[in-house]
C-alpha cells in the first residue's frame, strides 16, 4: 500500500491531538509542564505524534489544549515540519470528550482522527484510515495487543471487528487487546457529546456506543503511554528501539 494517505482520507479527515491533560500521576516527574511537552531523547513527546501524522500524509493538526496550553503554543507555534497547527484551548478542564467537543468548530470534514497526547503506538495509520473508509464505519478505536491488560482494561472484539465489551482496569489481567489511544469518528457522533461540561471518551462515550457501530482495528505494534513516572522513564528506550527497527 502506498505510504501516502488515501485520496479520500486526505480530503475528508481532520487530525486532532488531545493535549490538555493535567497529568496528575506524572507531576512528581514533570511538575512544570503539560505531559505532551515531556522531554524524550531531547525533544517533546508531542513531536513524535506529529511526526507520525506527517508520515501518514496530514498537513494540518488541531491541538486540543488545556493545562499550561500557552507552553505548548510557545514550543510549537503555528507550524512543525510543514504541518500547520491550530489550537483549541479549553477554558476549563473538560475531560477527553469535552475537549474534543469544544474543538469541533475547527473540524471542517465529516471525519476526525483523534490521538491521545500521552501515548504512542507504532501503526501504519494509512492502513487504519483505509480500513475505516472501506467498511463505511462511524466510530472506531485502534487496538494493540499486550501481555498484561490490567493497567488499561481489556477491549473485547468479535470476529466482525465489533467492540462488544470494555473490561475494567485491574480486573483484566492476562493478555488481550487494549485501547491504543487513536480513534476515527464521524462528526455526527461527536456532535452528540454535551458541550461545555466535563465528559470522558473512555468512561462515557465509548461504552455508550457498544452495539451501535463501534469497531476495533487490531494492531500489534509497539505501544507506550507516559502517564506514570515509571512508564515515562521507559520512553527514551522505546523510541530508540523504534528508530533501530526502521533504520
Can you tell me about this structure?
The protein is α/β, with parallel strands linked by helices and 247 residues long. It has a single domain (7-144, 179-246), classed as Spore Coat Polysaccharide Biosynthesis Protein SpsA, Chain A (Alpha-Beta Complex). It has helices spanning 7-12, 45-56, 69-76, 95-102, 125-135, 187-190, 201-209, 229-232, 235-246, and strands at 13-19, 39-40, 43-44, 60-65, 79-80, 83-89, 111-116, 119-121, 139-146, 155-157, 163-166, 176-186, 214-219, 223-225. Strands 5-6-4-1-7-12-9-13 form an eight-stranded mixed beta sheet. A hairpin with a 2-residue loop joins β2 and β3. α4 (95-102) packs across α7 (201-209). The longest helix is centred in the first third of the chain and has 12 residues, at 45-56.
Topology at a glance:
Blueprint lengths: L6 H6 E7 L19 E2 L2 E2 H12 L3 E6 L3 H8 L2 E2 L2 E7 L5 H8 L8 E6 L2 E3 L3 H11 L3 E8 L8 E3 L5 E4 L9 E11 H4 L10 H9 L4 E6 L3 E3 L3 H4 L2 H12 L1
Parallel strand pairs: 1-4, 1-7, 4-6, 9-13
Antiparallel strand pairs: 2-3, 5-6, 7-12, 8-14, 9-12, 10-11
Helix pairs in contact: 4-7
